[in-house]
Write a structure and sequence with these properties.
The chain has about 250 residues and is mainly alpha-helical. It has a domain at about 25-100 and about 150-245. It has eight helices and four strands; from the N terminus they run H-H-H-H-E-E-E-E-H-H-H-H. The protein has helices at about 5-20, 25-35, 40-70, 75-100, 155-165, 165-175, 180-210, 215-245, and strands at about 105-110, 115-125, 125-130, 135. The strands form two sheets. Strands 1-2 form a two-stranded antiparallel ribbon. Strands 3-4 form a two-stranded antiparallel ribbon. A hairpin with a 2-residue loop joins strand 1 and strand 2. Helix 1 (about 5-20) packs parallel to helix 7 (about 180-210) and helix 3 runs parallel beside helix 5.
Length: about 250
């Protein structure tokens, strides 16, 4: 049975889950994914999907550790963390590629009052005319399509990766402090529930500027580019730190 001390442990797990959602690599990953969303709720649900994937990984890893007393070797744990770093680089690069894949760099020059002015800018080279308005082409036939992509696939997978990468330390904590196995599994579940709530709140805050600027192309492109650049650079920083400072490649 769960007594008062067990409830205290579960409460601690919930608040640690909330705090866990604030880890820098989690926020960077969710920011990169949320930058691709136009709506506020769509951006917010990125965090929910991430948290669910994170919890699934923790529960599976926790069951293996608690049921079979399986210990995750330090080298494997480092490789998991390294995979997260590479994934952050890939997420950021994907955001940047989507922003600039159809953009063509042009320089326009004109003379005004005896002075030569040069205006560099990007624009999409192919447009389809609709009366007085233009619309970007989405395929070779010149037709514009709207694709309803499931919201949860990418953040769920990223959350699973984060759950696996962070499971070594968490499992060690559970094994050394909780001897009652059902309580240990409940702790992991409550921890995951806290991470879902924490990441929902954070992704809502992160997604607000993306959704707010969705009608302002230039501003939206700036903050999306910022999210992509931050993700790439933070991922490269983690690659160096894990590979050389923590000794994965040494």
């Amino acid at each position: 049975m769960f007594d008062g001390s067990a409830i205290s442990i579960l409460g601690l797990g919930f608040f640690l889950g909330l705090k866990h959602a604030l880890d820098a690599d989690h926020l960077v990953a969710v920011s990169a994914i949320a930058s691709e969303r136009k709506g506020f709720w769509s951006s917010s649900l990125v965090g929910v999907s991430w948290g669910l994937g994170h919890t699934v990984s923790l529960l599976v890893a926790g069951f293996l550790v608690i049921a079979f007393n399986f210990q995750i070797p330090q080298k494997i744990a480092l490789w998991m963390e390294f995979a997260i770093a590479v994934m952050l680089v890939a997420l950021g690069a994907n955001v940047l590629w989507k922003i600039f894949r159809r953009a063509t760099f042009h320089i326009h020059a004109h003379s005004h009052e005896g002075h030569l002015h040069i205006h560099p800018h990007f624009h999409r080279p192919i447009e389809h005319q609709h009366g007085e308005h233009t619309a970007p082409l989405d395929d070779a036939r010149g037709l514009r399509h709207h694709h309803f992509v499931p919201i949860g696939k990418k953040p769920f997978f990223v959350g699973m990766m984060h759950g696996l990468a962070g499971s070594a330390a968490l499992m060690l904590l559970v094994l050394t402090t909780i001897s009652f196995r059902p309580l240990a599994l409940a702790y992991i579940g409550i921890f995951g529930f806290g991470s879902v709530g924490g990441m929902f709140l954070m992704s809502a805050l992160i997604g607000f500027p993306f959704s707010f600027t969705s009608k302002y192309e230039r501003a939206n492109k700036i903050i999306r580019t910022t999210a992509g650049v931050v993700s790439v650079n933070f991922g490269l920083f983690l690659v160096y730190e894990i590979g050389f400072i923590e000794g994965l490649f040494l």
